[in-house]
Amino acid sequence: MSFRRVTLTLLLFAVARAFPAQQPSILPDLAREIDSIPAIDNHAHPMLSPPSDVTDREFDALPVDSMAPQTDPVALRPDWPPLHDAWQALFEVDLQPPLTPETQKQLDAARARVKAREGEHYSVYVLDKSGIATMVANRVAMGTGVQPPRFLWVPYEDALLFPLNNTSMAAQTPDRAQFFALEDKLRARYLHDAGLTRPPATLDTYINQVVLPTLRRQHEHGAIAAKFELAYLRSLAIGNPTKAEAASIYAKYIDANTSPDPEGYKLLQDYLFRTIALECGRLGMAVHFHSMAGAGSYFSITGGNPMNMEPLFNDPAVRHTNFVMLHGGWPFVHETGALLQKPNVYLDISQQALVVPAPTLATWLREWLELFPDKVLFATDGYPYAPYLGWEESTWLSARNARKALGIALTGMERDSEITPARASQLAHMVLHDNAAALYHLHPSQP
Ligand SMILES: [Zn+2]
């Protein structure tokens, strides 16, 4: 052996000792199993299939196109590298982000080709590509291609909380000015559906002629939960006012051209929230609420802290209602984890699964799974963000990233001998499917 060969061999030996072969971050068998589980997506905003897709605005109660600018997380920016994989998987095109005007046209054409090919089946096609058996669709109304059994409905209830003149609420931030205009429109629709043109004169009649019939109608049309975007509109702190307090605010302002002061108005909102939460419990509907630093530069991160809900969770009167903290409460991920000890409180990883890369998301998942594994739900928050990031791409990217995060978390637990391979498999099924199936009492024949 030449001197050079010996030197090279020694050098390679030294390198091998300094950098031992890296173990894969996810055990290969576990990764395969996680990829093969048909998931229940606890929260997303699918758009309708052709031909209704062109005019669909009902994927959100607050579909605001012109909010004041914010600093976007990198995963929502046009140069996010994983976009390439989503475009390829969904639309069979090989394009690099960021798109130019020319490549954006190519993506639009590829999307249009797949839509033309799939027709009304298009929304289900997106689920199939993303490994999702059932998507819980948070929409104002369902429609073409977005129907059971593959899509289950979650409507919006915030509009019912704000029946009075909302001028003072809207004046709080430029974004809320747009939000309250949209909520006023949705409430007018709920009034119309209840056969009314204006709110009744008393709180009792408002509850009995509008609030409860709206919920019961939604339930009859298949709603499995009621969604609140409350954190965009005010704090999540729900007090416990008396009926008399709420009724007097209602009676005083229902016909007024002025707004109540925010403190007084809050009593009425809190009373109505509790009324809805109680009825949801009676009907077997869960209550979903946005709990994460939200979109827009004026979102109150403090007001959206899920710890604000603890007094409500601790109230025995609403223990028959299940609450789901959507988006896992980021940045309050430890707080949401602690709140899972309440028997009727759950969380999902929607939105985080899109914007937080798997290694970081895995650390939160692991903490929750080590403590309350039956309370953690997979979800994407697929949403039409931008021409380069449609609800299709955001669903696909979130699903892939969430599976990776789950794999990293479970692999870490297995390597540290916290769980057996069999338990890792069971936990994967729980997060991706079984926990949601149990929460919503889904029939075994439900995909
Ligand atoms: Zn959402």
Structure description:
It is built from 18 helices and eight strands. The protein is globular and about 70 Å long. The mean pLDDT is 93. Helix content is 49%, strand content 8%. It has 447 residues and is α/β, with parallel strands linked by helices. Helix 17 crosses helix 18. The site of zinc ion has 4 residues, from loops.
Which percent range describes the beta-strand content?
Answer: 5-15%
Distance between the termini: 64 Å
Main sheet specs = 5 strands, parallel
Quantity of strands, as a count = 8
What count of helical segments does DSSP give?
A: 18
Percent range of helical residues = 40-55%
Topology readout:
Elements: H1 3-18, H2 28-36, E1 39-44, H3 83-91, H4 101-118, H5 122-130, E2 132-138, E3 151-154, H6 158-161, H7 167-170, H8 174-193, H9 203-220, E4 225-228, H10 230-233, H11 243-253, H12 262-283, E5 286-290, H13 310-313, E6 323-326, H14 333-339, E7 345-348, H15 352-355, H16 358-371, E8 376-377, H17 391-415, H18 421-439
Parallel strand pairs: 1-2, 2-3, 4-5, 5-6, 6-7, 7-8
Zinc ion (ZN) is lined by residues 43, 45, 138, 381.
Which structural traits does this protein have?
three-stranded parallel β-sheet, 8% strand, binds zinc ion, alpha/beta, globular, 447 residues, single chain, 8 strands, 18 helices, five-stranded parallel β-sheet
